[in-house]
Write a structure and sequence with these properties.
The protein is of the alpha/beta class. It folds into two domains: 174 residues, Medium-chain alcohol dehydrogenases, catalytic domain (Quinone Oxidoreductase, Chain A, domain 1), CATH 3.90.180; 144 residues, Rossmann fold (3-Layer(aba) Sandwich), CATH 3.40.50. 25% of the residues lie in helices and 26% in strands. The chain has ten helices and 19 strands. Strands 3, 5, 6, 10, 11, 18 and 19 form a seven-stranded mixed sheet that branches. It has a six-stranded parallel sheet with strand order 14-13-12-15-16-17, covered by helices on one side. A three-stranded antiparallel sheet has the order 2-1-4, with no helix packed on it. 39% of the residues are buried.
């Protein structure tokens, strides 16, 4: 079977044949034919050897890459109840430790032991291969109406989780506007990659006033996507933000991107840290700490997603597909064959929002 394989923590990636028994399907498992994989910064971090937490499954020295996935069921085990041959599915990424209360309650995204595994990232082979077997409990059913955009479900599930965390924690007060909506609230998203655009989309669809920031002018596709969702796009090197901020989301991982904006946060506002990177240091002064304290500013980091977040993501994609007919498809800016994957894993294509590997 053809697969895209890495050897973490070493640098490198190759497309090669692997041994995989597609006949050993358990009673509650399904055999799935891979249709597509999305490529993200995590994949490139593993390929470059920079993400040192990546590891192969126990007893192996290589890892099948890929956590963003879309597949179609080829065969099901005798006790699979919710799926049938021909169903389109997405597999969730993280599998719990089986020990802590969160993992035992389906919230492996809040694992307390750190002993979880993640497909294509650490301790579990991923989905960049022709076929794979997975347990029914880890599968999300995809309606046929959104199959063409379902590759966005992961990372969208992570965005949904962060949004849900925000709305839950902001119940600490009355945060909505006088008319019961959020159209008096300003959301500012740093970064215009797929995560940044999905954050922008979820906030704009909830009627926040959305501003997308980058250190460059938008590409024509980014500008069109922002226009369709009603968001403002600012090149922060050329233009400053004129409004105060109720929720600031950083998808860059660079402190220098969000720290200068903290003094524009409104009272009772929130900062969500989503991006991860390394090699940069920025100073946080005592005066800034005082500002955050005196203004009740909420700060939290968010990573991964639960099964419920994936299911909510399906609902968002379904609504957005009809509300913004062409917007989601524009986010896929390049499609490559598996043999071409190493090229786009080593180097991000110019103008990329989302690059997808097609196995069909």
């Amino acid at each position: 079977m053809k697969a895209i394989v890495v050897n973490p923590p070493n640098k490198g990636v190759e497309v090669r044949e692997i041994e995989y028994d597609v006949k050993s399907i358990g009673e509650k498992q399904a055999l799935i034919k891979t249709i597509a994989n999305g490529i993200c910064g995590t994949d490139r971090g593993i390929v470059s050897g920079l993400l040192k937490f990546s590891r192969p499954p126990a007893g192996k020295n290589s890892l099948v890459l890929g956590h963003e996935n879309l597949g179609q069921i080829v065969e099901t085990g005798s006790k699979v109840l919710r799926f049938k041959k021909g169903d389109y599915v997405v597999s969730i990424v993280r599998r719990g430790c089986g020990k802590c209360s969160n993992c035992l309650s389906g919230r492996q995204d809040f694992c307390e032991t750190g002993e979880f595994v993640e497909a294509g990232i650490r301790g579990l082979d991923g989905f960049m291969r022709e076929m794979f077997i997975d347990d029914e409990e880890y599968l999300i059913k995809i309606p046929s109406e959104i199959v063409d955009v379902a590759i966005l479900l992961e990372p969208l599930s992570n965005v949904v989780k962060a949004y849900n965390e925000l709305m839950q924690t902001q119940r600490r007060m009355i945060w909505w506007c006088k008319d019961g909506s959020y159209d008096c609230r300003n959301a500012v998203i740093i970064g215009s990659g797929p995560i940044g655009l999905l954050f922008s989309l979820i906030f704009s669809s909830q009627n926040f006033n959305v501003t997308i920031l980058n250190k460059r002018d938008p590409s024509p596709i980014e500008l069109e996507i922002a226009r369709q969702m009603g968001a403002n796009f600012i090149n922060i090197k050329k233009e400053s933000i004129s409004t105060n901020i109720d929720v600031l989301i950083d998808t860059s991982g660079h402190p220098s991107a969000f720290i200068p904006l903290l003094n524009k946060l409104n009272k009772n506002s929130a900062l969500i840290l989503f991006g991860t990177t390394g090699g940069e240091a920025s100073e946080i002064t005592a005066e800034l700490v005082t500002f955050l304290v005196e203004n009740n500013v909420l700060l939290f980091g968010s990573v991964n997603a639960s099964k419920k977040d994936f299911e909510d993501g399906v609902n968002f994609l379904t609504v957005w597909k009809y509300r913004y007919p062409s917007l989601l498809n524009k986010m896929v800016t390049k499609v490559v064959k598996p043999e071409e994957a190493p090229d786009v894993l080593y180097a991000k294509p110019k103008g990329e929002i989302k690059t997808v590997i097609s196995w069909t």
